[in-house]
Design goal:
Layout (H helix, E strand, L loop, with lengths): L17 E14 L2 E7 L4 E7 L5 H8 L6 E10 L7 E12 L13 H6 L1 H4 L3 H23 L3 E2 L5 E2 L11 E4 L2 E5 L4 H11 L1 E9 L12 E10 L3 H22 L1 H6 L4 H5 L6 E4 H8 L2 H33 L4 H36 L9 H9 L5 E4 L22 E6 L4 E8 L4 H10 L8 H8 L5 E7 H9 L20
Parallel strand pairs: 3-5, 6-10, 12-13
Antiparallel strand pairs: 1-2, 1-4, 2-3, 4-5, 7-9, 8-9, 10-11, 11-16, 13-14, 14-15, 15-16
Helix pairs in contact: 4-6, 4-15, 10-11
The chain binds 4-amino-1,4-dioxobutan-2-aminium adenosine-5'-monophosphate (4AD).
């Protein structure tokens, strides 16, 4: 029945021809003898113009009252029209209602995030979410292409595991037939085994952290891609990481121009993402954070925030005044939607104004030896227009498997990659401790059960080689690319500390 349905994205191939499209009503506007319906079908949007008399009166009246998200098929002549959404219009000759949707709960007026999360099953249909997940699709495709084209073999690591990969504090426990087990925090340790067989490997899947953290950067279930390479040193790893991220950005710029535009993403900044990225050691980052330069930077930022706040307040005042006057309903609705947006921007800038001095103080008091906090990462990343590698963190701040530095045993050979413009860490990686005795000492130091790590130690018993790798978080990368503030919008069904909604 639907075999002749044409995708909206393919309408360009059918100009001046009659086609049938199938989809859901984004919105409809009756105007005298005409009805304008914008239909979405998952591939794009198309305005359909229905003229009274061209379809039965009964259907015309039914469609006139049609609610958002009703599903139907529409037949008509394709007409190129630059002004129309999607660039093509359908001059309708027939229509078939499949299912009427009455009182769709998500309206064009803005809703609060809690409401939208509760209605995630429906909110996925929204334009913004649609754009984000089209870009996610490209990102995942680019990830696989990069590794497949660069001699990496895909090895799937297990999700149920018996060992601590990162920190014991963020493990999800599973009752595995009466035995203790965890949901995997990382595929890395298992991937190290595979690297000793294939040389260059990667795994890609969901990972789990029981993080009691409600920040905009944390999920309890997120997707991570992890490459692992034998016979490599830290500078070589950084090169792979910067080529990899640049490749992802390039693919997104090529494949998702329209989506980036709809999302109002910072395309010009993304075009700058080419190697080499900036490189700082942790000690240099510490010097920057505790310097006067950072305090000046924060003060300048605060001044910018205050100015932006004033501008938003002025816009709100002007719109409120206009809304009180005699204006058409469509303008009233537009103003109402704009006001909701502006008030949300205002709340956000207020938070920034409140946090700025706190973050400036945290930076000035930052002690060598601590891990970089979220706000410290934000400051460093705001100071740079391209991603920054921060390398050589203090040993005590990092995971047990990271390789101790030969020149300075207080630090490890690791790196985090911070995305620019305040987005913070998107990659964590390191060289792995390949010395049997040092690794044994670290496992004991952390109080992990030795018997669980015998297989991991075997990799150092039988033909140990220098090796390392990294993990890139898909949702954080996507948040950076799309300019989305919270990573919960970058996964279809987010899992956060306080809720599993659907
Ligand atoms: O820095 P992490 O913890 O590194 C590892 O798990 C290593 N074993 C990876 C490796 O070397 N193979 O995490 C890597 C990345 C982070 O940079 C971030 O992008 C993402 O995973 N990530 C999270 N994303 C969302 N929510 C969380 N709770 C995340 N924790 C880490």
């Amino acid at each position: 029945m639907f075999k002749d349905i044409v995708k909206i994205s393919d309408l360009k191939n059918y100009n001046e021809k009659e086609v049938t499209i199938g989809g859901w009503v984004r919105h409809s506007r009756p105007s005298g003898k005409l009805i304008f319906i914008v239909l979405r079908d998952g591939s794009g949007l198309c305005q359909c113009v229905i003229e009274k008399g061209k379809i039965s009166d009964e259907l015309f009246e039914q469609i006139k009252r049609v609610g958002a998200e009703s599903s139907l098929t529409i037949t008509g002549m394709v007409r190129k029209d630059e002004r129309s959404v999607g660039g093509y219009e359908l001059v309708v000759s027939g229509a078939r209602m499949l299912s009427e949707s009455v009182d769709y709960p998500i309206t064009p007026k803005s809703h609060g995030i809690d409401f939208l999360l509760k209605n995630r099953h429906l909110h996925l249909r929204s334009q913004r979410q649609w754009c984000i997940f089209r870009i996610r699709h490209t990102v995942i495709n680019a990830i696989r292409q990069f590794f497949n084209d660069n001699g990496f073999t895909l090895i799937d690591s297990p999700i149920l595991t018996g060992i601590v990969g990162e920190e014991a504090g963020s493990l999800f426990n599973v009752d595995y037939f009466g035995m203790p087990a965890f949901l995997s925090q990382t595929g890395q340790l298992h991937l190290e085994c595979a690297a000793m067989s294939f040389g260059r490997v990667y795994c890609f899947g969901p990972t789990f952290r029981a993080e009691k953290s409600k920040t905009r950067r944390h999920l309890t279930e997120f997707w991570m891609v992890e490459p692992e390479v034998a016979f490599i040193e830290l500078p070589g790893l950084l090169e792979i990481a910067e080529n990899f991220v640049s490749f992802i950005v390039k693919r997104v710029l090529e494949d998702n121009e329209a989506e980036l535009k709809t999302l109002d993403a910072d395309v010009e900044s993304l075009k700058k993402i080419v190697p080499p990225f900036y490189r700082l050691t942790y000690t240099q980052a510490h010097e920057i954070l505790t310097s006067q330069k950072t305090q000046d930077f924060m003060a300048a930022q605060l001044a910018d925030f205050v100015k932006t706040k004033q501008e938003i307040e002025e816009k709100i005042k002007a719109l409120e005044t206009e809304a009180k006057g005699q204006i058409k309903q469509w303008r009233q609705d537009k103003i109402a939607a704009e006001l909701i947006e502006l008030r949300s921007d205002l709340a956000e800038i207020d938070t920034k104004i409140e946090n700025n001095p706190k973050h400036a103080k945290l930076a000035s008091e930052f002690k060598w030896g601590e891990d970089l906090g979220g706000s410290d990462e934000t400051i460093i990343s705001l100071m740079h227009d391209k991603p920054v590698f921060v390398t050589h963190y203090p040993r005590q701040a990092k995971a047990f498997y990271m390789k101790q530095d030969g020149d300075n045993p207080k630090v490890v050979q690791n790196f985090d990659m911070l995305a620019p413009a305040g987005f913070g860490e998107i990659i964590g990686g390191s060289m792995r401790e390949d010395n049997y005795d040092v690794l044994l000492g670290k496992i004991k130091e952390h109080g992990y059960k030795l018997e669980n790590y015998e297989w991991y130690l075997d990799l150092r018993r039988y033909g140990s080689v220098p090796h390392g790798g990294f993990g890139l978080g898909v949702e954080r990368t996507l948040a950076w690319l799309t300019g989305e503030k919270h990573i919960r919008q970058c996964i279809a069904f987010p899992r956060m500390m306080d809720k599993i909604l659907i």
